[in-house]
Amino acid sequence: MLQTMMRKYACVWPLMLFGAQMGLGGILFDTARNVILITDYPAAYPCALAQVARCDRAFGWDKVRYDKTSDTYTIDCHLAIGANDGSETYFQVGSAECPRATLVMNGNIYVQPYAGEVQWWQTPAKVNRLTLGCLGNKDVCAVLKFAPSNSLVAGSMADGKGGRGGQLFVYNSQITALDPDKGFGINDGGRDNSLRQVGGDGLVLMNARIAHARGHLCYGAGSGLQKIFSVSNTTFSDYGALLPQSGKYVNCVFEGAKAAAIRDWGGLNIELTDCVFKNNVCNWELTYSDDGLTLIDCEWHPPRKRDSYRISTDKTGKKQYPKLSVRRHIVAEVLDGSGKPVQDAVVSFRAEQDGCDLIQSRTFKTDASGKTPGQGQANALLLTESITTATATPDQPGVKRFTYSLAAEKAGKRAMLTNVNVDCSWKTITIKLAD
Q1: Inside any domain, residue 310
Q2: Does the N terminus or the C terminus of the chain have fewer Cβ atoms within 10 A?
Q3: Whole-model pTM?
């Protein structure tokens, strides 16, 4: 019993702050800024919505409402998670006990960084994190809804100061609009943002959905500050544009983008695997970065307008020629003269045109079925279908398509196929070794 009470009140103490009303457990209300402040909740005992509601009732702030029938909490002010004071703060929405918890925000959420008093790289690495859902428990499907004029900012404080920390983790949950027709998002620093990841060092979206965002998403995501970055099985639906910098996206859907499904605002160097683009005004808008996009086994529908490719000049005066590299896996099947599979045959490839962006000295071995690794297996054969590069003429890029020579060899026997196209993913190419 004593241990249970200690856990329950581990983060409960009286706090006094000039200009703010007193609260409990690191929860207080700043009347001047109309914000509930959550601070100093460790990862083992994250702050939950129920705790915020209890403080609201106890101190009469009248900022939190709760509907028990739908397990919905509505907060009628801003919410700031974490502080620039050396502490760490974890805030959790949804749990095994409350698997369908919903948070409605009539205000902004700031997942604040730890900026310190000196340069960010000289400060200790601290964590302030908003988590929706639970890793490893797909039954917990939390929902975060924003009123039309509000948004989520991770990695930047309400006063605009940024630094490390400021993480967003979403598992089997969604971030969406209170009114889908109006969407959500505010004009932040001249940019119409809905979910901004600036300077924060952690972004995880796993089996997530982000929908009806009026503005931009994930500005700065994958930047050099981030030590944790993972986006998989996530749908981005009905939004303005995605503004990432670097990282890998796996099995994601980008649909209904009103500006660009992916927009390059500098530093763009991302890899997308098994992703789908559909019903977008523009699938990608490449402007400021030499690296651009790499699509692996992706599919896309034609945009409603057109995809954009434009060169630019960076701060050093160097011209940037953004490019789109399209790659696809194939399977090589090696048979002997009688049509039987050949195990442990060595397969290699060579592009028949200059400019291929792959290491062409790699080799691949066949298994008992005479095939190189297939879907879900390591070391599968990956080839570049095309590279599209911006030119001096806006939106008229140069396109280079590649064909390949595939060679197979075993025990002194060798065969080669030429003019092999990679126009679809995971197709099987058969090579026969002569007797």
Answers
A1: no
A2: N
A3: 0.90
